[in-house]
Amino acid sequence: MAQVEQVEQAEQVEDDVATFSIVQRTPRQIAWMRFKRNKVGVVSACVAGFFFLAAYLAPVITRILGLSNTLTYSTTLNNFAMPIGASGGMSLTHPLGVEPGAGRDLLSLLLYGSRISFSVAVITSVASIGLGMLIGITTGYFRGKVDAIVGRFSDFLLSFPSTFMIIALALPLTQRVEALKIAKGNGARIVVLVVFFVFFGWPGFARLIRSQAFSMRERDFVMAAQALGASSWRIITRELLPNLWPTAIVFLSISLPGYLAAEAVFSFLGVGVQAPASTFGLVLSDAVTYWRDDPAYLIIPSVYLIIIVLSLNLLGDAIRDALDPKAVKA
Amino acid sequence: MLKYLIRRLAATALVITLVSMSVFVIFAYLPMDPARLTCGKACTPSIIEANRHRLGLDVPVQVQYGRFVKGLVAGRHYGEGVASFDCPAPAFGYSFNKHACVSTLIADAFPVTFSLAIGSFILWLLIGVSLGVVAAKRQGKWQDKASTAFVLVGISLPTFISGILILLLALKFNLIDPIEMGRWVSPFTDPIGWARNFIFPWITLALAFAATYTRFTRSNVLETSSEDYIRTARAKGLSEKVILRKHTLRAALAPIITIAGLDFAGLLGGAIITENIFNLPGLGRLSIRAVLVDYDLPVILTTTLLAAVFVVVMNLVVDILYAYIDPRVRVA
Question: A169 and B26: CB-CB below 8 Å?
Fold first, then answer.
């Protein structure tokens, strides 16, 4: 990719020689150009963006369609509380069918559910990347004792069985959060989940940033800034940060689908968000009990979740290719 | 090498001690009273206090930790007189709800988890490494594209969805007997029954891991293939087969050992989702049940501790293996 870029730029330069104008491009423009050329990346960005918007506009969309995620549409169910009609009761009024048992509209359930999943994923990713960035830069730039202590602590955190800790502590900590009146019910469960994800999530990113800051502080442009008498604050914010953004964006795009699926897993296991909310994990664990009579109720949410995760993964790959063409996919 | 070994061993022992202490302290300060959890509806304060004393929960947390460590080595005796009972070493505690020593529960669950882990480990290494090598050798051809598609699906398919789908398909085509499902069969008495019990859980777990290993192997093989010594090997007339086996793979697979070791260790603590879906009575299901059904603290504490110990110990094993393969590591 980089070579193609150079060749193209060289051609461009030759073309421009006649008019004596050389087009300058910032790294950001180059990355954007590369990204635009990646068809898979653009399509997956559109798909991911669509589901993201749909999740955040869930109240608007359901109102336009005249649906609700709490109402039970009992007329759509037969005497055995199973949806009437093919494919889980799909119809014009209920595009994805209805839930067996209670009879809520499946599309509204999934829209509101993905809203929770996206919120958890976005907040967690941004928070753990922010924290990792702060700690990574500080330890990588200042080194010394702080670096040694923080480094040991993050090693220590990485050896903790995070999944087990989350499962074991989610229940008592949710009660604690409720007792402290920070949030109630599912709000408290989401707070606990996000705090846990961030707590165990930052060390990985901090390590990455630390090693980059470590080598960057020896580079000439940092030395030049030091020679000019720039303060540490200025060097970190003006010299180091702009160079570390690509790493952060790539990491963000990788961790988003991961946290999205993680939220689903914990609610599936029964330690995350709970009914009457309707996250992917909850809908799917409910769907397992109906799979013989209503397979559509299992398949539709699965496909919905898989499309979101897949498009986010493809988007992440495209972003990485655009920002760092030398990186090998690992 | 010996110096390195001793240093790493000491560090590992320290980490295990610290992790176990912090887990112990975290659980001791939970807003839940384990003594209160030991008795059901007909509970009086005096019973709770008696149970608290019997379980040794009426002493400061550092004393509790000391007794816990002592119990690991020497076994443990609970209560006095007629109502007393023993847990032989290694005593992790006593589950009041299940009326059993935690070590017994662990001993029952561990073979299940181990069987699950070892089978899927072999499966995903076979699939991941071979697909990765093929994809790298046929870079850009259909084999490469097919493996890329496999990687994408494998990475984007959460284990709990692939697990459910595999389970339901197997049930639909009568490949699993729903009554027999999750019954533990020893591989020593009935190897075929054992494998039949585990084949679908193995596939479920292996699917997720094989995808990342394919990707990793592919990029590693590609990277090594462009090294100078590979060109030298080719220039001196070695066959492609020999180059791949003796030169490329040896270098490309070394980093995979590290990841594989840690992934395996992570599974030894219990594959919670897979065990849950396939109803396998392993460590993962033991702990999730302990959390959801009756918040059985001694069991939760032990499974969490074990999961940490597996990871830390495997870290050590992997480091030693690596130092053995790559002498440069020892100095650093």
Answer: yes
Digit-coded pLDDT (tens) for B19-77:
888 888 888 777 677 777 766 666 777 777 777 777 777 778 888 888 888 888 888 87
User: Confidence class of residue B112 from pLDDT cuts 50, 70 and 90?
Assistant: very high
Q: Which two tokens stand for residue B112?
A: 């299940």
Residue of chain A whose Cα is closest to the Cα of B217: A330
Angle at B171 between CA B167 and CA B176, to 5 degrees: 90
Q: Chain A partners of B158 at a C-beta cutoff of 8 Å? A: 261, 264-265, 305, 309
Mutate to test the interface with A, among B168, B291, B296 (most CBs of A within 10 A): B291
What is the number of H-type helices and E-type strands within chain A? 14, 0
* Inter-chain residue contact A298 with B168, CB threshold 8 Å: yes
Closest CA to A272 of A119, A132, A72, A131: A119
Indicate the average pLDDT of chain B: 84
CATH 3.40.50.150 given to domain B103-331: no
Contact, A179 vs A192, CB < 8 A? no
Comparing B207 with A65, which gets the higher pLDDT?
B207
Task: Mutate one of A156, A159, A199 to test the B interface: name it (highest B CB count within 10 A).
Answer: A159
Q: What is the DSSP secondary-structure string of B251-277? A: HHHHHHHHHHHHHHHHHHT--HHHHHH
Cβ pair B19:A159 closer than 8 A: yes
For chain B, which residues make up each domain, given as ranges? 2-101, 103-331
What single-letter DSSP state applies at residue B181? T
Q: How far is the C-alpha of A67 from the C-alpha of A64, rounded, in Å?
A: 8
Distance from CA of A24 to the nearest CA of B (A): 32
Collect all residues of chain B within an 8 Å Cβ-Cβ radius of residue A160.
19, 308
**What type of residue sits at position A214?**
F
For the segment B274-302, the average pLDDT, to the nearest whole number, is 87
Contact B287 A288 (CB under 8 A): no
A162 touches chain B (CB under 8 A): no
Give the predicted TM-score (pTM) of the model: 0.83
Block means of pLDDT (10 residues each) for chain A, 330 residues, are 57 57 79 85 92 90 80 72 71 77 83 90 94 90 84 81 85 84 83 91 88 85 90 88 86 88 88 83 86 84 91 88 61
Helices (DSSP H) in B100-239: which residue ranges? 102-137, 142-156, 159-172, 191-225, 228-235
For chain A, the straight-line distance linking the first and the last C-alpha, in angstroms and rounded, comes to 17
What's the average model confidence in pLDDT over B184-199? Answer: 85
Cα–Cα nearest to B26, from A164, A191, A269: A164
Query: Is A149 an 8 Å CB contact of chain B?
Result: no
Asked if A175 reaches chain B (Cβ–Cβ under 8 Å), the answer is yes
Q: Mark yes or no for CB contact B308/A291 under 8 Å.
A: no
The nearest alpha carbon in chain A to B316 belongs to A159
Rounded CA gap, A291 and A110, in Å?
Answer: 18
Characterize B127-158 residue by residue with b for buried, 16 or more Cβ atoms within 10 angstroms of its Cβ, and e for exposed: bbbebbbbbbbeeeeeebeebbebbbebbbbb
Which A residues, 283 through 302, put their C-beta within 8 Å of a C-beta on chain B?
Answer: 284, 288, 291, 298, 302
Q: Å from B213 to nearest chain A CA?
A: 9
